[in-house]
Amino acid sequence: MTTTPGGAAPAPQGAPHAAPHRVTLRWSAIGLVLVGGAAGVAAREGLSLAVPDVDDIPVVIPVVNLLAAFALGYLYEGVARALPGTPLAGRLKLLLGTGFCGGLSTYSSLATDTAVLLDHSRGGIAVTYALGTVVLGALATLAGIALGSHLHPRGPDEQELRRIEGHADPHGATRRAS
């Protein structure tokens, strides 16, 4: 099989020829995720060391997952409303969303802790632990979205309102009232 200069396989015979798609990684974006992730992992580890287990149940893991879910909901809604389409919005999502919240949350530890609880014949607690974290995590995300919406309301687009009300033509020119 031959490839194009970009490394992609050629289009099948009879198919339209499209330019090969190259994925470009920016070192600044990778750096933001790494810095945010390191801070999130450090925060999780600090909480794990500071908060003891309760009756051999690691309570920090659900707590950090809920915090991360809430923060992600708030972050994405608040940033989308306050900084729509700006480079700063993208950088904040990488640093805080993908990086910090990704490092803070740990659903793999949740799965491991659930398996340990099951292994110790604590099935009811294991199911409550796992399902409770997932359901409460979804609710925490919705709460974060609601808070982001409340604290960063979108202002009306004045030009769109004029167009809807019939005071402007679709091309943006204002009509005079008759």
| Approximate strand percentage | under 5%
Supply the helix-strand structural class: mainly alpha
Note the gap between the termini: 70 Å
Shape: globular
Estimated radius of gyration: 24 Å
Helix content, binned percent: 55-70%
The string of secondary-structure elements, in order, is HHHHHH
| Mean residue pLDDT | 83
Q: Biggest β-sheet, characterized? A: none
Which residue ranges are poorly predicted, with pLDDT under 50 across at least 5 consecutive positions?
1-6, 174-178
- Find the count of extended strands (DSSP E, 2+ residues): 0
Our count of helices gives: 6
Descriptive notes:
With 178 residues, the chain is mostly helical. The chain has helices at 27-50, 60-82, 87-104, 107-119, 123-151, 158-165. It is globular. The termini are far apart. Mean pLDDT is 83; it is low at 1-6 and 174-178.
